[in-house]
Design goal:
Layout lengths: L5 H28 L5 H26 L2 E4 L12 H30 L9 H4 L1 H13 L10 E3 H26 L6 H27 L5 H14 L5 H11 L25 H7 L23
Parallel strand pairs: 1-2
Length: 301
C-alpha cells in the first residue's frame, strides 16, 4: 500500500480506527438504551446523534473526493468505476437523515426551555446519555482539519467499509429510540433510519463498483450477485413502518404540552426489552450483522 506522505497515512489510519471503534461501541449503546429512559434522556441522546450524523456526512464528503494515488489498468471491457459518485450519494442521504431530525428536535427543545450540557454526566443525565456523548467524542477525530484523502483505491474501500459498519450500528440505535418515541420525534427518527438505509445502500454500491472496476462484464455479473448476497440491505425502516401499521389500534404516543419534562419528574419510557417481554405478539428482533451471532440487545427485526 502506498501513501502520499506519512502524515496522511497516520491520519487516515486514525479515522479508520475511530469508525471501527464506533461501530463496535454502538452495541454498548443499544444495551444502555434498552433500559428505561425518560423523555428528556431520549431527547438528549437524539441531540448527540445529530452531531454524529454531521461527522459521518463530513467523512463521506471527503471520501467522495478521494484521489487514488495509483489506478489499475482498465480492461477494455471493464465494468463501472464510479465508487466516488456512490459515496457522494451516501453523503446526501446522511444529510437528509440529519435534516429529518432537526425540526422536531428544535421544537421539542423550544418546549423544554433548554439545551443539553455538552459532555454528559452519568450522575446527572444517566448512563445512556453519557454513553452517547462518549460515542460522539470517539468520532470527533473526523472534525479535525484534514488534507484531501488519498492513497490506494483499496484503502479508500477499507474506509468505506468502516463507515458502513458505523452507519449500520447508528441506524440500529436510532431505530431503538424510535420505537417508543412520541410524535413528532418518532416520525423524524424513523425517517432518519430510512435515510441511513439509503446511505448503507450507496456505500455498498461503491464497494461493488470498486470490485468490478477491472472485471470484464462476462465475469462481473457473478461477482455483483455474490457481493449483494454477502452484504444484504438492512430493510430496517420498512420493518419499523410495517410494525407501526400493525399496531394501528394502539397509536403512537403523542407528546403532551409538557414534553419534554425534566429527567427528575418524567415517567420512564417503556424500554424495548420490556416491551418485547410483555408482548408475545411482538415481532422478533434482528441481531446486528456486524458482529455475528450474539445476544439480543435491542436490535429490532
Amino acid at each position: 500500500m502506498s501513501w502520499p506522505d506519512g502524515s496522511s497515512q497516520r491520519q487516515q489510519a486514525r479515522l479508520a480506527q475511530a469508525l471501527h471503534d464506533f461501530g463496535d461501541a454502538t452495541d454498548q449503546a443499544v444495551r444502555a438504551w434498552a433500559g428505561q429512559l425518560t423523555m428528556r434522556q431520549a431527547l438528549d441522546i437524539t441531540y448527540v446523534l445529530t452531531d454524529i450524523l454531521r461527522l459521518f456526512e463530513t467523512t463521506a464528503e471527503r471520501l467522495s473526493r478521494y484521489r487514488a494515488k495509483s489506478k489499475p489498468a482498465q480492461h477494455h471491457d471493464a465494468g463501472p468505476d464510479q465508487p466516488n459518485e456512490e459515496i457522494g450519494q451516501a453523503r446526501i442521504s446522511i444529510s437528509s437523515a440529519r435534516a429529518a431530525l432537526v425540526h422536531p428536535l428544535e421544537e421539542a427543545y423550544r418546549a423544554s426551555g433548554g439545551w443539553p450540557e455538552p459532555g454528559g454526566d452519568p450522575a446527572r443525565d444517566g448512563t445512556a446519555v453519557f454513553l452517547a456523548h462518549l460515542l460522539y467524542q470517539r468520532l470527533n477525530i473526523a472534525a479535525e482539519p484534514w488534507p484531501e484523502l488519498s492513497g490506494t483505491g483499496e484503502y479508500r474501500d477499507y474506509l468505506v467499509e468502516t463507515l458502513i459498519c458505523a452507519t449500520d450500528g447508528l441506524a440500529w440505535d436510532i431505530q431503538n429510540l424510535a420505537r417508543d418515541a412520541p410524535e413528532p420525534m418518532q416520525t423524524g427518527l424513523t425517517e432518519t433510519v430510512a435515510r441511513l438505509d439509503d446511505t448503507f445502500g450507496h456505500l455498498r454500491e461503491s464497494l461493488i463498483c470498486s470490485a468490478k472496476r477491472n472485471i470484464a462484464p462476462s465475469d462481473a455479473e457473478e461477482l455483483d450477485r455474490n457481493l449483494r448476497l454477502a452484504i444484504p440491505l438492512p430493510g430496517r425502516a420498512q420493518a419499523l413502518r410495517a410494525k407501526n401499521a400493525l399496531s394501528a389500534p394502539h397509536p403512537a404516543r403523542t407528546a403532551g404540552a409538557d414534553f419534554p419534562r425534566s429527567a427528575a419528574d418524567a415517567a420512564p419510557m417503556r424500554s424495548p426489552a420490556t416491551a418485547r417481554a410483555s408482548s408475545p405478539a411482538a415481532a422478533p428482533w434482528y441481531q446486528s450483522r456486524r458482529s455475528g451471532p450474539k445476544e439480543n440487545h435491542g436490535h429490532h427485526q
